[in-house]
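Hey L., structure's done. Input below.
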Amino acid sequence: GRDLICIQSMDGMLMLFEQESYAFGRFLPGFLLPGPLAYSSRTDSFITVSSCQQVESYKYQVLAFATDADERQDAEQQKPSSGKRLVVDWILNIGEQALDICVVSFNQGASSVFVLGERNFFCLKDNGQIRFMKKLDYSPSCFIPYCSVREGTINTLIANHSKILNVYQDVTLKWATQLPCIPISVKVANFQDLKGVIVTLSDDGHLQCSYLGTDPSLFQAPKVDSREINYEEMNAEMKELQKIIREATKTQDILPESENQRGITVTAEVSADLDEESQAIDSEVKAGAVPSVTVKITIQSRVTAQKPSLAVCVQAPLAVTCDQFVFDDLEPDSSETVVLSVFLKENCSPPELEGTCMVSYNTPTELNPEGIPRVSQCSFSLPLKLVCFPTQPSKAAYHKLTIDTNKPPISFVTIFPDFVDPSEGDQANALGFQFLTGSKATLLASKTSQRYRIQSDQFEDLWLVTKELIYRLEEHFKMQNCKDFACAFSGSIPLQDYFELIDRHFELRLNAEKYQELLSERAVQFRAIERRLLTRFKDKTPAPLQHLDTLLEATFREVIALADAAEENQANMFQAFAKLKSATHLVIKLISLWQKLSTDQVAILEATFLPLAEDTQELGWEETVDAAVSYLLRTCLSKSSKEQALTLSSQLSMPKDTSRLKKNITLFCDRLAKGGRLSLSTDSATQQAAVMPGGCATIPESDLEERTVILGSTAMFANHGQTTKQKSKP
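Output:
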């Protein structure tokens, strides 16, 4: 009938009181900081967790007969009979600090000691043996074992710093619920009409009583009179709703609104002349002076724009002096202008002379003051003279292309005024382009026919000149309101030159793989020698090194040499991929001129042959293009339903060689030559395969007359398939 109270002080002293009377005090051995303390009535023991990260149990009887705390300082001078030394009953090392200890005993469960650690949850027997433990993947804050639902098990509530309350049955998670705050204490209480109320207290004094479950719905839906369904009215209503949906989802109604309501407009203006003083930074081009061109970017805001930022992107090997800009919040009808320069950084010609500006910003609304994220962007084109300058034309070259037109040739003074000296007048029918990388290309205009010839010793250098020629011719005739101008290509597609660039790029990829394997082997060898040397150096009895230091130095030199070779191979592979992209652009342009492909078909070609912006060992250009070309050959360019039934591999991996890729590209051009049409629709592929046994739809007579010269070029595929024969009309 008495209240016994135990108080633990900060210096490790246990003070015991009987009612209001002080009984005795004892110092715990090896004390540093106070830990959680609990009393077990079953064993009459005090259980705590010491600073040694171990659970300790002290019997009350041992505490009562041990040396008194007041006499601790004179303990060494006392006689052995004056008191007993404080001895621990049992110890369990848990390897971490404890947050709380709880001793429970339920009817259906055995008496247990629960310890909540910083990373684990322990359940101990009365003698200190572990009954079970649970590793926690969160940081707990408090816990309480509250009942035993099933015989031999105990249910526990554990709260954590993520505001989650977990319900465990022994080590099994039974339930988890979200709390509004982080509790520092949790209890289960029974009130007058409520049982099992969870009471939590937060560190800021927030006390909450809650329960698991849902509020019962007291609403009962009234009974409705059963009536027959009028299907005609329902169909009419359904048609009306579908009409509203169609009107709301029309693209032509949506896009103009978004254009008018666009908050920010970004425009880029490229200077017509190169910079007088070049702004090129850290350029690797070996030319004497690397030119640069100024790009002026203007951001015009119609609304309030929060956190606007501008990103300017150009494809390598081109680079910009600054590619990121951050502005203060823009007010309505305000603008910002930035100026930057673009130059050639790497020592290879770029596959594209284009750039992109992108502005990201937030527009605040009444419902969302932080703003809705939005993006505006625009693209700009760079001048050809950024990467080349005029030079004397060459009479002979290894690679040649001829572009046919349906209009008389135009003087280069008119379409290339920035590359031709005006003093030459209309007599200039040859033009030379000297690239900064050292290669040269020549453009020739025929005096008697409507043709232009582009020639160069490097196949990939033909692309930029060809693209610029076609673009300037189209712009010239557009300014003269000539709508029937067209370019064509009647020669053979230079696949063998294209395949040489593919083989070169693939060879460098194989070299990169070999360097990676050799580096891995030498690194393993280097670490093994290091371990051997470390063992020798730590040995108390000195032993000879047996030339391990020499072997370590030699291995280190091999690792450095391999790393340098791998880095050089990586730079070569970057240049090879840039050349391959330029050649791919050229092949796509020639195929489109050869077969007079539409814009959608050219887009399919570009997606097929230019799927990657960057080339990596994990996902390379060869396997990606091979999969895309194989898909087209199996669908829209298939010869029969048997080919359509073939399945493609779902996993892309680096091939052993490029023979399959080159075979598929050759077959791809062969199918196009025989009248195949590019389409991503499976219906059109099936219909096309059913038209002709060869898988190609018949060509109308009018188209045949227009493309007699073009289709006659299929003789180049004689080694890979049958050639087509044509009869002239009488």
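The CA atoms of residues 300 and 335 lie 4 Å apart. Residues 75-83, 251-260, 683-730 have pLDDT under 50 and may be disordered.

-- N.
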